Amino acid sequence: MVRPTYAEIDLGAVARNVTHLKELIDPSELCAVVKADAYGHGDAPVAAVALESGATWLAVSLIEEGIRLREAGIDAPILLLSETGADSVSDIAKWQLTPTAYSVDFIEALAGADTPLQVHVKADTGMHRVGAAPPAVHDLVSAVNRSANLAVAALWTHFPVADEDPEFTARQIEVFDQIVAGLDLPMIHMANTAGAVLFPEARRDMCRIGLGLYGLHPCPETRSKVSLSPAMRLVTQVSHVQHLEAGARPSYGQIKELQTDSTVVTAPVGYADGLARGLSEYGCALIGGHRFPFAGTVTMDQIVIDVGDADIGIGDEVVLLGTQGYEEVTAYEWAEELNTISYEIVCSISPRIPRRYVK
Q1: Most buried among 40, 88, 182, 324, using CB within 10 Å?
Q2: What is the CATH number of domain 11-217?
Q3: DSSP letter (8 states) at residue 271
């Protein structure tokens, strides 16, 4: 028996999201950010659909992520979003990845590659995570261009609060423009999803679209600007049905008491799958197009659901994340209950959950 639990990934939704975002940012290019296994959606399938739908670049965090895309037959430009170790230069060259650089040491390591490399220099305009300080950027660009083996292909930066602080983001754009002044650059890019949607002046030559690719909005303000469709559903089935009397307390810790005689069903999904234990108190599931609350603590492999007097049977579909009929459980709901962000929700769906792709 194969466990009937899976993440359904709607590649049609990904395609629509790319199309809508591309129309918004036109004529800027769209770089699809598919790091972290495409935010849990599956990097190679998502990357292929994004490219078919209008994306021209891909971006990842790790060399291993870039290699996996190349092994899947993808030949589009792939940007590494951070510097890697000096010993990784041969792999960058072998797999034709585009490195990001923001230090002299890494530029010197790249210069030793056995093939020419196009380099994206990153400036730190306020994120203060990685990137070159503004006064150092011109010297780094010169260092790249002095190497016979290297060429600056772009200068870029990143926004930490484009979804919540327009004044800070506007200052970042101003700082970036001051850095760019006097440089001859083939490409500049700075906007993430929030920046691309909310700050037209930040779109420039390319926008790096992550969260929006998967149909999630970074903030309420983007909802009126672009139509996005969530691409993931977390689906399972009822595996057990029992009728319990009022006062029963199902599952570990006995945190909830049934207020009336009720039917409690079990579904084979748990916190090892990414259904966070923190959802135990207020989480819910969709069965038959209706919302039903969890009846107790989320366990490692199973969840119990209070369905009251509804006629629910073994094998009925259970949706933990996504739509069923006219109802929907969103990543935003999970995020609010868990005091986190929707990014973490979709990225946390475990690799042991199979991904099934539909259009």
Answers
A1: 40
A2: 3.20.20.10
A3: G
How many CB atoms within 10 Å of residue 102?
Answer: 20
69 and 60 Cβ atoms separated by less than 8 Å = yes
CATH classification of 232-358, choosing from 3.40.50.11540, 1.10.220.110, 3.30.450.150, 2.40.37.10? 2.40.37.10
- Please tell me whether the overall predicted TM-score, pTM, comes out greater than 0.85 for this model: yes
Which residues are bridge partners to 58 per DSSP?
A: 32, 78
Among residues 339, 257, 268, the alpha carbon closest in space to that of 296 is found at 257
Burial of 167 (0-12, 13-18, 19+ CB in 10 A): exposed
Q: For CATH 3.20.20.10, list the domain ranges present in the chain.
A: 11-217
Choosing from 6, 22, 35, 256, which is the catalytic residue? 35
Walking along the chain (359 residues) 10 residues at a time, the average pLDDT comes out as 92 98 98 98 98 98 98 98 96 98 98 96 98 98 96 98 98 98 96 98 98 98 98 98 98 97 98 98 97 98 98 98 97 97 98 96
- CATH 2.40.37.10 in the chain: give the residue spans: 232-358
252 is an active site residue: yes
Bridge partners of 304, per DSSP, are 266
Q: Indicate which residue of 39, 102, 214, 252 is catalytic.
A: 252
